[in-house]
Every structure is written in C-alpha cells, then in structure tokens.
C-alpha cells in the first residue's frame, strides 16, 4: 500500500514539473491523474487496499469540511441572534479507536469543529470527554460524534 502511495506522489511531482505548475493545484491534479493511471494498471500490483483507502480518506475530508461548514453557521447564528440557543454540556463519548493516532485524529477533528472541544481522554483510553455547545439530547450528541467523525476516521485508517 505505501509503495503505491509513494509511486502516486512521484507521479504527481513529475506531472507538476512537466506541466510547469509547481504549486498545490498542479500537484493535486498530478495526484488525481497518477491515481487514475495506477487504478487502470491495478492488476499489475496484486491485491491492495490502496485504492479503497484513498477514497475513504477523501470521504473523511469531505465529511470534515461539511461538518465545519454546518457547525460554523450554527455557531454564527447563535452569536448574531438575540436569543441564544446554546445548551453547553460536557459529555463522555465511548471510543472504538484504539491506537494513539486514531484517538488523536478523532480528538483533533472534534476540536477543529466549531461548537465542540475535546477536553480529555480517560486513563484506560476508552472515553473521550467533549465540551459540546449545542446539546438537546446527550445520546444524540454522542451518536453524532461517533457516526460522523469516529466512524469515518476508523474507516479511513483501518
């Protein structure tokens, strides 16, 4: 899997150099074209999870951007209206993430989303404590974090 990723990075770099676009957009275009070339030639590499993992990582990034937009507007609406709709609470979210990297990524994505902030992880690393700005139902808030963030992180990394 990592060999294909390195090959894809080399293809992206080569594409951006050949096209004379030594910037992020040229590199990303090269990465997409390199991914397509590797996908077309995938029978040469044998069974690999690289192609599925890249799609899952892109889905995680898209889900994060969506959550970022929605929560930004929700916090903005609460700030600019005279009536405040926030009902802050600290909740514990049971974690299915086990490795340090998985837990770190879940906690950081939660913290980067406006209206939520990761506070702590339990000693046994099975619970993430999160301050949530809008809590109508604790179970619903807990389920949203697990389904929208943790599930996608675990899909992308495992």
Explain what you see.
This protein is mainly α and 158 residues long. The protein has 2 domains: 2-48, no CATH class; 62-157, no CATH class. The chain is built from 5 helices and 3 strands, in the order αααβαββα. It has helices at residues 2-19, 24-40, 50-80, 100-112, 138-157; strands at 89-94, 116-121, 127-132. The mean pLDDT is 93.
Query: Could you estimate the helical fraction of the residues in percent?
Result: 55-70%
Tell me the overall shape.
elongated
Terminal CA distance reads 12 Å
Reading the helices and strands in chain order gives HHHEHEEH
Round the Cα radius of gyration to an integer and report it: 20 Å
Could you give the count of β-strands? Answer: 3
Query: What is the tally of helical segments?
Result: 5
Strand order of the largest sheet: 1-3-2
Strand content: 5-15%
Please give the domain count: 2
Q: Whole-number average pLDDT?
A: 93
Give me the secondary-structure category: mainly alpha
How are the elements arranged and paired?
Elements: H1 2-19, H2 24-40, H3 50-80, E1 89-94, H4 100-112, E2 116-121, E3 127-132, H5 138-157
Antiparallel strand pairs: 1-3, 2-3
Helix pairs in contact: 1-2, 3-5, 4-5
